[in-house]
Amino acid sequence: MSAYITHRQALPPGELEALRDALLGSRFVARSPLMGTFQGSRGFALIFTREGRPALEARFPFLTPFLARVLAPGSARGLLSWRERLFGGRHPEPNAFYLNLLLLDAGLGVGRHIDATLQGPSGVPDATPRHVSVLYLQVPPGARGGMLRLLEDNRPLGEVRPRPGLLVHFQGHLQHEVQPFIGARDDTQRASLVCEQYVFPPEALARLPPFRIQSKAGFAAYLDSQRERTDG
């Protein structure tokens, strides 16, 4: 079983650029809603279930190509063992998701952690994702560092060097960290889109909102966004 897999160009360049520009230009971008090791980062997040996906895509249509790519049943097939790939078997598809835009300035990283963002909302105290997907939207030209390091029980498993368009899937129970990068320019951020993909039983799934925006941009951002939708 592979700990992680990568796809060199997950989206065509034009779709990647449009997705990046729409996300970075969103009114919801602010100090990250995540706590702890994410302090200093910026972005916003979306909680949604499989049933809430149409509402999310109606609100943020620019996410549709990304979701089609990342949530496709075979997208992370390489994480299965060779026996599972050869002989198949029943593997429930993820039914709940936490999507996080992560913006990091030069010199900032993310400390070692295991993704478990939906533990609280689901009421499942030990919930971890089936797998986590990371799409790199923007990497400053000439930047050094910024590696994604993957570990299991503090034992290094590998490193991924970020580049625009690269998609990484990794097992959801793994520890991981993001090393700070040194940029040739101080005004360029590194941007990635992180999707935690969970499988919950019906009783836990019922506790989750079908679709919710998490942002510290303030209520004005929600009003402006609603006004734009109405005017459009």
How would you describe this structure to a colleague?
This protein is of the alpha+beta class. The protein contains seven helices and 15 strands. It has a seven-stranded antiparallel beta sheet with strand order 1-11-7-14-5-4-15. Strand 9 (148-152) and strand 10 form a beta hairpin. The mean pLDDT is 91.
Model regions low in confidence, pLDDT < 50 over at least 5 residues: none
Major β-sheet annotation: 7 strands, antiparallel
Strand order of the largest sheet: 1-11-7-14-5-4-15
Query: What structural class do helix, strand and pairing data support?
Result: alpha+beta
Question: Based on DSSP secondary structure assignment, what is the total number of beta strands?
Answer: 15
**H/E order of the elements?**
EHEEEHHHEEHEEEEEEEEHEH
Tell me the helix content: 10-25%
Distance between the termini: 47 Å
- How much beta, percentage-wise? 25-35%
Q: What is the alpha-carbon Rg in Å?
A: 17 Å
- The mean pLDDT is 91
What's the number of helices?
7
- List the quaternary state of the chains: single chain
Shape from CA axes? globular
